Amino acid sequence: MALSANQLHFFLRAATMQSRDCRSLSGRAMRNGECVTALLVTATMAVLPDAAVAQTRAGVVKVPAATIAYEVQGSGAPVVFIHGYAQNMSIWDDQMPLFAQRHRVVRYDVRGFGRSAGDVDQTEGASDLTILLDSLGIRRAAIVGLSMGSQIALNFAVHHPERVSALVLYGAPPTNDFTVAGDPEMFALFTRLPNIMKAHGVDSVRKAIMATELGWNPPNRPDIDRKVLRGWEGYSGRDLTNPKTPSGRVPPTRLAQVNGVRIPTLVIHGDHEVAWFRQFNDTLMARLPNATRVIIENAGHGAHFAEPEKFNRAVLQFLEGVGIR
Q1: What are the two backbone dihedrals, phi and then psi, of residue 214, each rounded to the nearest 5 degrees?
Q2: Which of 14, 75, 162, 179 could pair covalently with 183 via S-S, beta carbons 3.0-4.6 A apart?
Q3: 3-state DSSP assignment of residue 29
Q4: pLDDT for 15 beyond 50
Q5: Higher pLDDT, 7 or 304
């Protein structure tokens, strides 16, 4: 059984684009088109205030044909974290306690992943987020999304800009109408994933994906391996073996809509990010009128796993810089 077109789109395009010469702070020429700010942090994180952090509150909210599991911690301006494909909310373990010292932090499992029920359906993502925020009494929040989560975040910002105080697009994959051609080898792998799932199970699917550009991490880092394994807990692979037709409740984001997103936006990824993700991030920088870019050195698609202090510092500084404290 083949992957759905939407799933294939998450992963299967890579190409090169013309780029200007742009250098990181270390003087190395950057490969991406828009001039970027490379994040080079050699010092440890600044000490944050010692204010007591509220205990984590967990809950479940009903959404159409699914339930969403979530956790909330801290107080202050709300910040929501959304995980990537096949993952769960535990991928934000290095972020939640730190951000909760300044913010009311919400993380949740997207429908079909982790402890959330229902079928995987990206056209429900923005609607599910709306219902979750309403249930928590949050009218406006900063939204941080990784990969698939960044697609949900961007889609939510397009359809509900009044509810987004700031946007962090982390490892963002292209919109469906991005015109860059796909990488044939990666395309072939992802079309085989349903058969791999049926024959060998989730662990083999994870290993196959992690063997691609998506899985690049610095060598000899067993701590990252442990985080990745935990992040896959709860993934059933049902979307591969029994995919459902999307509801179409919220139309996917079109590239032309990106130009109208005037919310302060941080575009962030590792310097070993997937090639076509980087190319799309170039396009985001060219189209978003109020965007800043950070590239984390020695990190890939899971930059916050490899370099949590650099990632945390970049996001916190961005939020503070746009007045979200």
Answers
A1: -60, -25
A2: 14
A3: strand
A4: no
A5: 304
Q: Band the pLDDT of 121: cuts 50, 70, 90.
A: very high
The answer to whether domain 5-42+54-321 has CATH 3.40.50.1820 is yes
User: Whole-angstrom Cα distance, residue 235 to residue 4?
Assistant: 17
Q: 34-52 in b/e burial notation, b at 16+ Cβ within 10 A?
A: bebebbeeeeeeeeeeeee
What is the identity of the amino acid at 275?
A: A
The set of residues, in sequence order, having a beta carbon less than 8 Å from that of 155 and lying 6+ positions away, is 125, 126, 250, 252, 253
**Can you give the residue ranges of every domain in the chain?**
5-42+54-321
Q: What is the pTM of this model?
A: 0.85
Distance between CA 83 and CA 45 in Å, rounded?
A: 23
120's CB contacts (< 8 A; 6+ apart) are 110, 111, 112, 113, 238, 239, 243, 244
For residue 187, pLDDT over 90 is answered with: no
Amino acid 325: pLDDT: 87
Q: Looking at beta carbons, which pairs linking 161-165 to residues 24 or more positions away fall under 8 Å?
A: 161/261, 161/262, 161/263, 163/130, 163/133, 163/139, 164/140, 164/263, 165/77, 165/140, 165/141, 165/263, 165/264, 165/322, 165/324
pLDDT in tens, 261-271: 999 999 999 99
